[in-house]
Amino acid sequence: MTLGRPRLHLRETGSTNDRARELAAAGAPHGTLVTAGAQTAGRGRQGRVWSAPPGHALLMSLVLREVHPLLPLAAAVGVAGAVGKDAQIKWPNDVLVGGRKVAGILAEGRPQDAWAVLGIGVNVAIRIDDLPPELHATAATLGREPAEVEPFLASLLASLERVLALAADELLDAWRARDALFGREITWSAGHGRAAGIDGEGRLVVELQDGGRTTLDAGEVHLDR
Length: 225
Ligand code: BTN
Fold this sequence. Notes:
By secondary structure, the protein is an alpha+beta fold. The chain has helices at about 15-25, 70-85, 150-165, 170-175; strands spanning about 5-15, 35-40, 60-65, 90, 95, 100-110, 115-120, 185-190, 190-200, 205, 215, 220-225. It starts with 6 loop residues before the first strand and ends with a strand.
């Protein structure tokens, strides 16, 4: 197992992604793991904040030096595998249980840096009531005990390791098997249509009302209903 060593655990930090980026820039090896009991400036995708009550969530970032071309999707497949057979993925990489988000993924890094930082937050043992009120209707929890955060980390690292070794077509098939949006009406910043899976580059394929198709390669989509 190459993911998870060396490991830096912080009782509290701003963002584990920021700590991991600093370590990556300083030459930390592939697989270096930063975990935290709490974050004071946890970051999500699209400039959002990531909130988690101290000690009740898995908050982690990995330094990767072998960067998988489909890393954001691969990470979602790995997290979903650790969460369980009912976990679904909302493109590109929100992990859902029962239609609600139980884990978020923030992959950062530029190709010219030859490294990426993979940040993952999983609501392992949170109580929904302890999250900010605006998340109550959309967040999920695994409902486990705080003592189970560490064993969950071990199974997640093993799952990620398996997924990152998959060939691209196997990975895409694994992602498609958990597609939460397939066949659903969706809206994004520039339009709406029906989600029709992902293409070979991991872009979301959308069928438009005029019978045409388009693909989305970044951003956020919302279910219409
Ligand atoms: C999202 O769904 O918007 C992505 C959320 C990513 C949150 C994790 S928590 C650990 C790591 N550190 C951060 O600041 N963000 C990621």
